[in-house]
């Protein structure tokens, strides 16, 4: 039997050891530890072999196919895949691929059309057609200009293409490598001018070449002459829409569409006189606030109607509401 003296000493030793062990596990070097919650890894929507599209129309002859997802960069590698002669997907025409961020791809191409095994997709290079010897009459077409030089994505625009040697039946096109061409419709042709409408529905943004092809096959190209992009700002209302001469500290709200939230500029314009509405901020694509502004003789303010101008800084696109703002004839005080 262990007497009470030694049993008490043994109990104390065990208690001290327990405290030391507990202290070591909860305190290292005098600093407390915390558990780091790992950030959830992004979950890709697509896998290799998924053929993706903007809509589920099924009329496309070429689409992107995902060839790889890279978790380190959170990006997809993709390639153009083409329909076979029987309408099935598909084949490649070359080995080219490109890389794009996952979030962008999934936003622009939200629809999965089909799935293929990438390793089994053949590369079929189009066979060049040998042209027969043709004797041409006169000169081939020459393209010198296009007006306007840009159009809104998913919209349509009527353009005038100028040049020489255009022939009735000439076909105008917008061409961007890797994308299906945009062919003009309702086309009117004279020897020096073509009027046509380009429908840019579901077409990629970017710079396009302008091509005119005469019925005999001869063509001319105006490189990088047309741009498909986002729509410019549209102003529908401004509040308040009038102020008194020499009124100071006025702030405004402008409503409309297509405002850039990354930076806009708002101005009041009368002739060559511009008064900038400072502190312009687009809280959304449909509303801008700006001001305060002082309307005094010293900064060019005059009684009368003024235009309201919104400029998207990023795209340098402008929108104008003509004579939508008025400076009224209050008491004019020299300043």
What can you tell me about this protein's structure?
With 335 residues, this protein is mainly beta. The chain has three domains: 71 residues, no CATH class; 88 residues, Immunoglobulin-like; 95 residues, Immunoglobulins (Immunoglobulin-like). The chain is 9% helix and 45% strand. Strands 1, 2, 3, 4, 5 and 6 form a six-stranded antiparallel β-sheet that branches. A five-stranded mixed β-sheet has the order 8-15-14-10-11, with no helix packed on it. The chain has a five-stranded mixed β-sheet with strand order 17-24-23-19-20, with no helix packed on it. A hairpin with a 3-residue loop joins strand 12 and strand 13. It is flat and about 80 Å long. It starts with a helix and ends in a 7-residue tail after the last strand.
Gross geometry: flat
Number of helices: 2
Number of strands: 24
Distance between the termini: 108 Å
Helix content: under 10%
Share in β-strands:
over 45%
How many separate domains make up the residues?
Answer: 3
Mean pLDDT, rounded to whole units? 84
Helix/strand/pairing category: mainly beta
Biggest β-sheet description: 6 strands, antiparallel
Rg, Cα atoms, Å: 34 Å
CATH superfamily of the largest domain, called what? Answer: Immunoglobulins
CATH class of the largest domain: Mainly Beta
The stretches of 5 or more residues where confidence is low (pLDDT under 50) are 24-31
Order of helices and strands: HEEEEEHEEEEEEEEEEEEEEEEEEE
Q: So, CATH architecture of the largest domain?
A: Sandwich
CATH topology type of the largest domain: Immunoglobulin-like
């Amino acid at each position: 039997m262990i007497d009470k003296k030694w049993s008490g000493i043994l109990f104390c030793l065990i208690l001290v050891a327990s405290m030391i062990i507990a202290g070591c596990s909860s305190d290292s070097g005098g600093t407390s530890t915390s558990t780091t919650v790992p950030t959830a890894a992004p979950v890709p929507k697509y896998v290799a072999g998924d053929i993706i599209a903007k809509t589920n129309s099924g009329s496309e002859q070429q689409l992107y196919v995902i060839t790889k997802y890279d978790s380190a960069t959170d990006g997809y590698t993709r390639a153009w895949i083409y329909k076979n002669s029987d309408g099935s997907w598909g084949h490649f025409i070359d080995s080219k691929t490109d890389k794009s961020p996952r979030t962008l791809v999934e936003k622009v191409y939200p629809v999965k059309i089909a799935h293929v095994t990438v390793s089994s997709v053949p590369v079929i290079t189009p066979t060049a057609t040998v042209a027969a010897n043709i004797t041409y009459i006169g000169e081939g077409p020459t393209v010198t200009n296009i007006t306007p030089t840009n159009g809104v994505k998913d919209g349509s625009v009527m353009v005038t293409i100028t040049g020489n040697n255009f022939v009735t039946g000439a076909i105008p096109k917008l061409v961007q490598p890797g994308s299906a061409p945009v062919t003009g419709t309702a086309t009117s042709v004279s020897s020096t001018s073509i009027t046509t409408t380009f429908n840019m529905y579901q077409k990629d943004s970017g710079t396009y070449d302008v091509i005119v092809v005469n019925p005999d096959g001869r063509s001319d190209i105006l490189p990088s002459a047309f741009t498909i992009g986002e729509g410019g700002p549209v102003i529908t209302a401004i509040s308040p829409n009038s102020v008194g001469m020499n009124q100071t500290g006025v702030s405004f709200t402008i409503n409309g569409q297509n405002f850039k939230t990354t930076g806009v500029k708002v101005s009041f314009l009368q002739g060559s006189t511009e008064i900038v509405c400072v502190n312009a901020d687009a809280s959304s694509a449909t509303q801008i606030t700006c001001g305060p502004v002082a309307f005094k003789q010293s900064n060019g303010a005059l009684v009368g109607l003024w235009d309201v101008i919104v400029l998207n800084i990023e795209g340098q696109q402008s929108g104008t509401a003509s004579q939508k703002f008025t400076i009224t004839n209050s008491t004019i005080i020299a300043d």
